[in-house]
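Page 42, continued from yesterday. The earlier attempt failed because a stray header line got pasted into the input along with the sequence. Redoing it now with the clean sequence only.
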Amino acid sequence: MAEPTPRRNESRLRPAPLLFEPAEAASDPEHFFDLESIDDPRALLARATELTLAFRAAADRAVEFQAMAAAQLADPRRFDRLTTADISERAEWTEDYAKKMVEFGRDLMRGDAEGRGPGDSA
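This time it went through. Structure tokens are written below.
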């Protein structure tokens, strides 16, 4: 179960760093962050859990940046603003989701999102 995103004033937990894999390792479909080479199930569970948390944190943070970018692009004060239909097309979202992301981004930029995601109610 995913944990809520921390509020702006709360410190974020720093998950295990996501390191880029060497090209030769990334080209092997069986290779994934060297997990296949860990024989001890305890160590495997620990490292896989670290990676899971790191990916979740990275995805949550990326969604926040998407939302802020969507809100900036939809800002009516911009001479080159985009409609939510334009934003949804660029981001490959539905238009309803784009509207929620614009709203979430505006909340984030005002500093009052308080850990809510684009689909959460206020």
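Notes: Confidence is low (pLDDT under 50) at residues 1-10.
Reminder to self: strip header lines before submitting.
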